[in-house]
Amino acid sequence: MSDATGFLHEGRAYGLLAAAGLRVPRHGFLETGPLPFAPGEPIVLKGIADQLWHKSDKGAVHFGAFDAEALKAEAAAMRQRVAEHPWIGGLVCEKVAFKRLAGLPTEALVSLKRDPDAGWLAVCGIGGLQADAWAALAPPMIWPLALCTPEQALADLRVHWLGRTWLGHQRGAEALTDEAKLLAFLQGLWRAAAGLEREGVTLLELNPVVLDGDGLPTALDGVGTLGAAAPAPAAAPDPAWYQALVSPRDLVIAGVSSRAGTVGRIILENAQKATLPEGSIRLIKPGATEFLGLPCLPSVAELALAPTDQLIVSLPAAQTLELVEQLCRQGGGATVVYVVAGGLGDGADTEGLGQRLVAGLEAHRREGKWTPALVGPNGLGLYSPDQHLNTLFIPDEKLPLRPKPGHVALVSQSGAFLITRLSRRPDLGLRAAIAIGNQMDLRCSDFLAGFASDPAVKVAGAYLEGFAPGDLKATAEATRGLRAAGRRVLLYKGGRSQEGMAAASSHTGALAGDHALQASVLRRAGAMLAERIEAFDAALSWLGAFAEGRPRRVAIMTNAGFESVVSADLLGGPFRGAKLTEAETAALTATIEAHGLTGLVSPRLPLDLTPMADEAAYLASADLLLASEADVLVVGLVPLTRRLGTADPAVFGPFARALADLARQHGKWVGVAVEGGHLYDAYRQGLREAGLPVFLTMEEALEGLQLIASEL
């Protein structure tokens, strides 16, 4: 009576759950006896057969009283009804009396799954016949076991519809169990996953899980799948690649054309503006010893004796593959290879070139041979302000980049996303901005690990359309490592809808995957996951100015009533408006009087200073509000008032610097929303130059803060 290959039957599932200390019905197989039941005791007989997932649909479930001979006859009849499934045995189970509430769901569906991308997961939602309908109202909870504790899972369950019902928190409902029993159940699931791993189980589905007469969660049914052991992770690239990419000592470029405006020429022209030592840029150009004043090599073979930190390859896909294979054969030449071309592993690759490239790199690493680290393919380039190193193939007149080193590092699977961020936010202080392309070799997790090794990086941001196989878990682990070191991780994950997944796949060849799963894993690891690009951008502006701190209590100061109202509407829950003490209110009243605003301004938050307030009134009020319990001050400036000097840098420059100085003195965050048209762009720029994050609307500023406040 052994398990058929690939199928975990209910009898074995019960044994694995019981070994983890979880409550299962008393049970036994008719064929093995003796059975733990008294004559006449209510029981359930289940026909267990290979790949028989839905027994009741096949007439393989029977409710009755315990009578061994009668049950053997019933089991024989079941065996005939499921003859297409190899028979395993007749399982006799205790009929569990469980608690119910009229009109409310009291059954759960729980699964333990070894996901190839995320590791072991527990999924818990409302079970029973109407599970699908309830899932739309109360989506199931997803707990990545390596990133979440049973105690954290209990906190989720406590506020979920299912947990509220079980604990009696629904209106008019009685408690069916208590938190101690639920925590013990969750702890058992975590233990069970370890046992499932040892037994080669890949999925265990429990439906339903009910509460017995003592309130103990009890799995009435359990089936699953068996599979091969999880594959060993691929060998890691040499960590020297990171410095070679973002701070190279020298570069070699392959694919520079004699024609102006071509990709290779633009890369070269941008790279020549870098502060690299004289003679640190070479070209690979067969038949030439010098081109545009730079030394040339006939092929990559010469790099075996004179290697480079970074080789940028702007060649067609087939030539790129040959070049990388030659590097591998000769055992050296470039620490990191940046591949510009597409056509490797994406929709344009009809010859399997990408598969050949990946297989070659993996084989070399497995055998312990020298292997270059590869960025891309389909990469747009990178920008590293410390050296003013720009390898993007966007001409300077379209994207003028001027060095502003800082603590933010950005990676993007989409080159267009990266360059539009650089174009829209030239004031952002950067350590590096890298277009990572299709992630054939170096993946998102590798870049996050690289940032973790770089003390200059305090905030890592990423735009992703999909994860390479297994990289979701690795990305979560790298995120957790960054968070443990006090760094921040901000992500936007594209390809969430079916249409988005199709677009991501056609563009980059990446698998978008299940967004709910990915979001749960990444948030559990401590990432801020933006649902809108506008929120990503706003949070990035805040974090670019303030890498440390957590904005939970917000003070709002504006000169327009609508801004105060809109801002107040966005405050709630853990992200709330700050409160003033009586003494602080009295001090604010005196300040209002001192600036001639008595009768116009009420001393309360949100603070509406009205269009009659000048810069001095703003600064005095900001000083008071930053001394309150507020973590962050958001300043709304409608600039269409003569009381503010918005056109003269001699006026708004000192004001901006004084506001930034107050933020530093109080050790708190300050951001500004300037709600006006292009006439006020210079005014905004003056505020940015003082180091303040600047927004077009109060709503934008607060949406970014809300995302940061959601960080676990």
Give an overview in words.
By secondary structure, the chain is an alpha/beta fold. The strands form 5 sheets. Strands 1, 6, 7, 8, 9, 10 and 11 form a 7-stranded antiparallel beta sheet that branches. The protein has a 7-stranded mixed beta sheet with strand order 14-15-13-12-16-17-18, with helices on both faces. The chain has a 7-stranded mixed beta sheet with strand order 20-19-22-21-23-24-25, with helices on both faces.
Per-chain topology:
Layout lengths: L6 E2 L1 H10 L7 E3 L12 E8 L11 E5 L2 H14 L5 E8 L13 E8 L3 E8 L4 H7 L3 E4 L5 H10 L1 H6 L12 H21 L1 E11 L5 E3 L2 E5 L14 H6 L4 E4 L8 H9 L9 E4 L5 E2 L2 E4 L10 E6 L3 H14 L3 E6 L13 H14 L6 E3 L6 E3 L4 E2 L14 E8 L2 H10 L5 E6 L8 H9 L6 E6 L6 H14 L3 E6 L4 H11 L6 H10 L3 E3 L2 H13 L7 E6 L2 H9 L6 E2 L4 H13 L12 E2 L6 H12 L5 E6 L11 H18 L2 E6 L6 H9 L4 E2 L2 H12 L3
Parallel strand pairs: 12-13, 12-16, 13-15, 16-17, 17-18, 21-22, 21-23, 23-24, 24-25, 26-27, 26-28, 26-29, 29-30, 30-31
Antiparallel strand pairs: 1-11, 2-5, 3-4, 3-5, 6-7, 6-9, 7-8, 9-10, 9-11, 14-15, 19-20, 19-22
Helix pairs in contact: 4-6, 9-10, 12-13, 13-15, 16-22, 18-19, 19-20, 20-21
List keywords for this structure.
7-stranded antiparallel beta sheet, 7-stranded mixed beta sheet, 21% strand
Please give the share of residues in helix. 25-40%
Structural class comes to alpha/beta
Largest sheet: 7 strands, antiparallel
Number of distinct helices? 22
Poorly predicted tracts of residues: 498-513
Global outline: flat
Count of individual beta strands: 31
Approximate strand percentage: 15-25%
Rg estimate, integer Å = 31 Å
Question: Distance N terminus to C terminus?
Answer: 48 Å
- Overall pLDDT metric: 93
